[in-house]
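Students often ask what a 'structure token' actually looks like in practice. Rather than answer in the abstract, let us consider Carbohydrate ABC transporter membrane protein 1, CUT1 family, a protein of 264 residues. Its sequence is given first.
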Amino acid sequence: MGIGYTGYVSTLDWNGIDDNATSVGFENYIAIYHDPVFWTALKHVVIFAIGSILIQAFLGLIMAVLLSGPGLKMRPIYKVIMFLPVVLAPSAVATAFRGILSPDGSLNSFINIFGFNVDIGWLADPSIALYAIIGINIWQWTGFSFILYQAALSQVDQNVIDAASIDGAGFFKTLWYVVVPQLKGTHATLALTGVIGSLKTFDVVFLTTGGGPGRSTEFLGTYIYEQVIDLYHAGYSAALAMVLLVLALALTTVQLRAYKFGEE
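Now compare that with the structural description of the same chain:
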């Protein structure tokens, strides 16, 4: 019902408040195609998704392997510490990192311990703000990758690992050629959730940079918010929302088919 209504509104020239709505057909969609801000936001989503998914998966797998080793003390405590950022409210995370990444924040203070004299505004510099947002996302969601890999590693056949060790494979070769291929279901799950999460990313970006400076961290979610709340372009924002939905469904379908093809 909600999707149908959004689709209907996307065909209107309407401010979302009064009754003076005019039907414009597909003009909003044509405007999106010619909108440079839309393409900039989409590019940021792609960069954000690639950086976040790959690094989170790598870090999550490494931590899962290390915490799965025999003889490790306080294993439950380490697991809680790894997963804790996942359950934190985005508002709390954004508030904390606004302070950490400010020119006089903790990150610059830590770097200056090593003799550097930096006062970088990590969220205020258009050339690095997007990567700062990626770093925040990695910090918050690596624990999710870790938990999934931890569960998947418990299902890996230990006999296969033992056979690889007997054949002379070292730790890294065993990990890359034996363990990683058996986790492709987890890889696919993380890629799918990561892509969908990147498309709908809004809260942390809005609460840290608001899409700035100079649209350097503009995402589809923040652009939709701007159009409907700040500019009262309800019809155009609804069209953007429908495009976002289509992109999410298309990418989900492609990933699921690619995963099924890899299993054959």
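One point worth highlighting: The longest strand covers residues 12-13. Ask yourself how you might have guessed this from the sequence alone, and why that guess would often be unreliable.
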